[in-house]
Amino acid sequence: MKEYQQNKETESAGASFSAHAQNSKDVIHLPHPQDSDSREDWPGFGAVIQKYRKKARLSQPKMAKMMEVNRNTITNWENNKNRPSLDDTKILCETLGIPLYELFGMYDEMVPTSQERTLLRQYRKLSSVSQKFIESMIRNMLQEEVDARNDMLRDSYFILPLQSTPAAAGTGCEFNELKPEPVFIKKNRLSTETDTLIRVSGRSMEPVYHNGDLVYVKYTKDVENNDIVICTTADGAVIKRMYDNKLYSLNPQYPYGEKGEDDHVQVIGKVLGTVSADEIPDAEDIAILREIKAEELYEFEREDQ
User: Fold this and answer.
1) Identical fold at 39-107 and 158-303?
2) What's 158-303's CATH class?
3) d(Cα 50, Cα 43) in Å, to the nearest integer?
């Protein structure tokens, strides 16, 4: 077996078993917060018309006269028995000041919520000095939140190399000479013991390891029975279970054949586990991490040259 240096302090960020795996995955976005103006709390078309009619202090007959319809039409609108035509809807919104997004129960993040409109009215009542104080306070609070998020991301994630050649769960993936890709991974017990990431290709290691999974790999020749290992062979790179110096698939539908000296099998590392979705930052956090860890990314690229 080929001996590999295991001290991560001295190992190149692009350390490879000849270069392994494809592209990293993007994951997960936080949902947008809902509020009282969201579709979930929408009271209904008729209730919105009634709300704004009463707010304008209009009776149904008076409103009917303004709209040039009969009173029953207004009653039917407010009872959700029927809806106004497009022309009547336009007149309704202009006459009563109903926002279209509220009339139809649509959420629009660019439109202030009722709470935000209340705050805006209160802000406009302040003196110019007080308004400047509020503006300064908001800028400071926003910056504090940005700094806190950046600190959290900086402390929670670090860079691991994802090898450009996958490890086949079948007969073997042919090696390529592409450079490893830097991937941001959340710090945890497994990731901090890992030397590199490798992508699984194929189904012979199901149900534990699936096609496309990223696995944590530690470079070592010290493996024991039943360890999941990454090997180089004459056919390419493979991921298999080691037992009595033989390699086995986990999926009985895809058995792995006997290997001899001509197959040049070398164990280069042990699989520590699978990378879960919550251990990979989402696209928004990746953009921030690329900015705040720009120097580390530069060092990664430079060491791999």
Assistant:
1) no
2) mainly beta
3) 11
